[in-house]
Design a protein that fits this description.
- The structure is a homodimer.
- The first copy, chain A, is α+β, with helices and mostly antiparallel strands.
- The longest helix of chain A is centred in the middle third of the chain and has 14 residues.
- Chain A contains two helices and three strands, in the order αββαβ.
- In chain A, strand 1 and strand 2 form a beta hairpin.
- The first copy, chain A, starts with a helix and ends with a strand.
- The first copy, chain A, has a two-stranded antiparallel sheet with strand order 1-2.
- Chains A and B meet through strand 1 and strand 3 of A and strand 1 and strand 3 of B.
């Protein structure tokens, strides 16, 4: 599984997989992975694609994005 | 601002506003608000709509969802 690989890579901090409470949400699963930097994530992703790749899952569509936290309270 | 109201309500835990690093992301802003329960959030939201409401912002489209964390590592 890709998570098993990614969490061994430099810069990995944590992952939290969120499941929608409503059964008809636009996004049923939201995975929030925290990395020390965008560069660390990109390096780990590139390495994963070179080695194992990502097996497609029927009916699963991804909307990935890289974010930085700008406000917390 | 709606955040100022919400953080005074019972069950509010925290908020983290995320901004996309890429300028052309499908979602430019992702706000992750943590509440003690879905019920606490729904009660606070209902109260906010009754009192102040939410002022629309030109060009801003919301895709809200309620999630529960199912896996962490």
């Amino acid at each position: 599984m890709s998570r098993d690989f990614l969490q061994t890579q430099p810069g990995y901090v944590s992952t939290a997989l969120h499941q929608s409470i409503a059964p008809d949400a636009k996004f049923m699963l939201v995975n929030i992975a925290v990395w020390e930097s965008a560069e660390a994530f990109k390096a780990a992703s590139a390495k994963m694609m070179q080695t194992a790749g990502i097996a497609p899952v029927d009916g699963l569509k991804f909307t990935p994005g890289l974010y930085t936290v700008i406000v917390t309270d």
